[in-house]
Fold this protein.
Amino acid sequence: MKVIILGGDGFCGWATSLHLSAEGHAVTIVDNLVRRRTDEELGAVSLTPIRSIEERLQAWRETRNTPIDFVQLDVAKDYEQLEQLFRDIQPDAIVHFAEQRAAPYSMKSPWHKRYTVDNNVNATSSVLCAMVEACPDAHLVHLGTMGVYGYGKTKGMTIPEGYIDATLRSGGAEAHVEILYPVDPGSIYHMTKTLDQLLFLYYAKNDGLRITDLHQGIVWGTSTPETDLDERLVNRFDYDGDYGTVLNRFLMQAAIGHPLTVHGSGGQTRAFIHIRDTVRCIALAIQAPPERGERVRIMNQMTETHRVLDLAQMISGLTGVPVEMRDNPRKEMAENDLVVANDTLIKLGLEPTKLSDGLMEEVLHIAGKHRDRCDESRIVCSSLWVKPIAAE
Ligand SMILES: NC(=O)c1ccc[n+]([C@@H]2O[C@H](COP(=O)([O-])OP(=O)(O)OC[C@H]3O[C@@H](n4cnc5c(N)ncnc54)[C@H](O)[C@@H]3O)[C@@H](O)[C@H]2O)c1
């Protein structure tokens, strides 16, 4: 297949690009490299020494004798170039990772809030519009997030894959319908993913575009069999308070002997997936496109759920590094339960990698190897969800 990977220089995108290339697909990466500039803005580089995109692609050519093409453009802004690229390549599938993906970053300031909305919504809108014009038969696979469902009280109910049966009552009449699961975003970033859902619904209904939306859990780990092939192929490892995700942050904190920072009560339950499973899920999803005119296919891309405090205590038990409770900068429930259906990807062939499979030690090892690159002042999250009220 000819596959375009939007955001292919990022954490999930780079590992996916290599995996799909290794599987024999003709891959083109599109990226504006904004994530590398954000590293400079935040003064927090990847814990692993990632190479320039040119060096990465050269290393892949040398390792596998398979080229991956690269086009630098802004998916949210360079519409004509994007449409022309789709016209020229005529992709079978487009995988869309090209969004600002950190909740804390999206809450930092008015600029960061507006940038996240502008970038994410315009990127998705432009991709869909260009597909209608240039490649209406292509299959769009988008990375959404479990966060669109929110983390409210579900009273033990299983979160379904995107849709739920509902009974609507108004004016004395009653209608039984299937609707998108009610959204409940917990940050500006998560809100953009709920807006993406409406764009998908519209373009699938109106233009018959074939769209799969993967509501992904928090990704942990950093390496895949392909990124392990050469040190120049190493994947990013974000550890800072903005981009670092919870489990990788705990593992990295343990590796350098920094207390494991739990925000709030630690009773928040979240869904997780290892990066190796992320890339397999994308490979499975592109092989199973919906028909033209079918509704958006939504899958929950996660393999297990855990309470944040349980994770911290598990890693503390493994390493002897203490847990430190901190104020929660987020506006969220202190505790929630989370039961999630992930039947579709399992039926497509996903064999879940679990925390118990020994890969936590691998991440500890990688974090320990690069501990000198860590700037400890960047570990703590400084973004606040709600503006403090000035004292009189
Ligand atoms: N990492 C996770 O734990 C996680 C969890 C759930 C969902 N996701 C989703 O997966 C996707 C990828 O996440 P990631 O962790 O790889 O993020 P990332 O920031 O590492 O990668 C995103 C890539 O997209 C590029 N990009 C952003 N805006 C762009 C634009 N306008 N034009 C061109 N390129 C642009 C960036 O330069 C970067 O290389 C995101 O959409 C995110 O919401 C990630």
Remarks:
- The mean pLDDT is 95.
